[in-house]
Amino acid sequence: AQSVSQHNHHVILSEAASLELGCNYSYGGTVNLFWYVQYPGQHLQLLLKYFSGDPLVKGIKGFEAEFIKSKFSFNLRKPSVQWSDTAEYFCAVRSTSGGSYIPTFGRGTSLIVHP
Amino acid sequence: DAGVTQSPTHLIKTRGQQVTLRCSPKSGHDTVSWYQQALGQGPQFIFQYYEEEERQRGNFPDRFSGHQFPNYSSELNVNALLLGDSALYLCASSSQGAQETQYFGPGTRLLVL
C-alpha cells in the first residue's frame, strides 16, 4: 500500500521568506503526484500536479514542485511567500496501476506567514 | 459553471443516530468520491461511485454506505454514529479516465456528541 509522509507539520515564516515543504511517498510503481491547498474556511484546491514529463512542475500562485524519482519525493517550493499563503498544504500520491486512481494524502503541513 | 457542492455545511448529531450527507458533482463529472478528514489529518478515502455503483472502497466499516443517482449526485450515509465519526466529510468529483483530477467540495462538518 502506498503512503505519504509530510515531514513538516507546522511551518511559520515571515513574508518574503522562501518556502520548501517536504513530501515523500512509498510506492515503487508509476505514480501521479499532487499538491492541494486548503485556505482557512475554504475547500481543498489543486495547486499543481505531476503526471509525466518535465519533473519540475509549475502551479498556481507562484508555487512549483520537483519530482525526484530516485528519492521518492515531490517537494513544494515558493521563492517568496505572502501573508495570503497562510493555509494547510496536502501532498497526495496515486498509483497509476491496478485501476485504482485513488489518491493517498499526507497529514498536511500548516503554514503560517507573518506579515 | 458550478463546482462541487455539498449539503449541509454543518451538522450536529448524537451517538447512535444516522446521518445523510449530499453532494452534487462539478458539471460534466460523472464520478464521485467521498473522504473523511479528521482534525489535523489529511483526507481519508471512504468510497467512490461511478454509474450508480460503488466502484472502490477504503478501509471504512459497513456503517458507511452511499448512493449515486442518475444525475451523478451522491449521498453518504453513516449509521450508528460514534464520537469518532466527528470530522469534515469531503466530496470530490471527476470524469472517467486515468488522467482526470479530482475537484473537492467545501465539505460537511459533522459533530457527534
Strand-and-helix sequence of chain A, N→C?
A: EEEEEEEEEEEE
How many strands of chain B?
Answer: 11
pLDDT average of chain B, as an integer? 93
Give Rg of chain B in angstroms: 13 Å
User: What structural category characterises the helix and strand content of chain A?
Assistant: mainly beta
The number of helical segments of chain B is 0
Present the secondary structure layout.
The complex is a heterodimer of chains A (115) and B (113).
Chain A: E1 3-5, E2 10-14, E3 19-21, E4 24-26, E5 31-38, E6 45-50, E7 56-58, E8 64-68, E9 73-78, E10 87-95, E11 104-105, E12 109-114
Parallel strand pairs in A: 2-12
Antiparallel strand pairs in A: 1-4, 3-9, 5-6, 5-10, 7-8, 8-9, 10-11, 10-12
Chain B: E1 5-7, E2 10-13, E3 19-24, E4 31-37, E5 44-50, E6 53-57, E7 64-68, E8 74-78, E9 87-94, E10 103-104, E11 108-112
Parallel strand pairs in B: 2-11
Antiparallel strand pairs in B: 1-3, 3-8, 4-5, 4-9, 5-6, 7-8, 9-10, 9-11
Gist?
The complex is a heterodimer of chains A (115) and B (113). Chain A is mainly beta and 115 residues long.
